[in-house]
Amino acid sequence: MFAGGERIGQVITPGDLLAGKPPVMVYPIDPSSRVVRDGSRLNQILLVRLPPDELDEDTRARSADGVVAYSGVCTHAGCDVTLWQAETRRFRCPCHDSEFDPRERGRVVGGPAPRRLPRLPVKVVDGVIVADGSFMSRPGFQPG
Ligand code: FES
């Protein structure tokens, strides 16, 4: 569901994510209990739709029609990754300007972040975006 903005609390659908639009920050909902998993910032997820042919093979394999999902928490010092560079299609952290490429498995392409933004494999089931497993690396950061 949307983690903020005008539609906070509403379930997001693939149709809400348009190519060329900025990412959306969401929280997951447990599919069986319907409980919103918003008790930890580490559950924040960035969803963005990109042209599938721009994704590297591994990223595309874990995306759904170009929709990719990443942790919304910076791997440098844990700020929310809230900025989007539309021209270069990169996530940017507002705290120290780390940049991550969502087309290449969340690779660090600038700034002090020590590791990729963790990926969450996704698929679409019955018109809903669902996680297809866990984060592929540990979300969050290592305090120094
Ligand atoms: S916390 Fe994101 S760049 Fe420092």
Describe the protein's architecture and organization.
This protein has one helix spanning 57-61, and strands at 24-26, 45-49, 67-71, 83-85, 90-92, 99-101, 107-110, 122-125, 128-131. With 144 residues, it is mainly beta. Strands 4-5-6-7 form a four-stranded antiparallel beta sheet, with no helix packed on it. It has a three-stranded antiparallel beta sheet with strand order 1-2-3, with no helix packed on it. A two-stranded antiparallel sheet has the order 8-9. The longest helix is centred in the middle third of the chain and has 5 residues, at 57-61. The termini are far apart. The chain binds FE2/S2 (inorganic) cluster. FE2/S2 (inorganic) cluster is lined by residues 74, 76-79, 93, 95-96, 98, 111-113.
The CATH architecture would be: 3-layer Sandwich
Question: Averaged pLDDT, please?
Answer: 94
- Helix and strand sequence: EEHEEEEEEE
Largest sheet: 4 strands, antiparallel
Helix content: under 10%
The stretches of 5 or more residues where confidence is low (pLDDT under 50) are none
Output the CATH topology.
Answer: Rieske Iron-sulfur Protein
User: Strand-residue fraction?
Assistant: 15-25%
Count of folded domains: 1
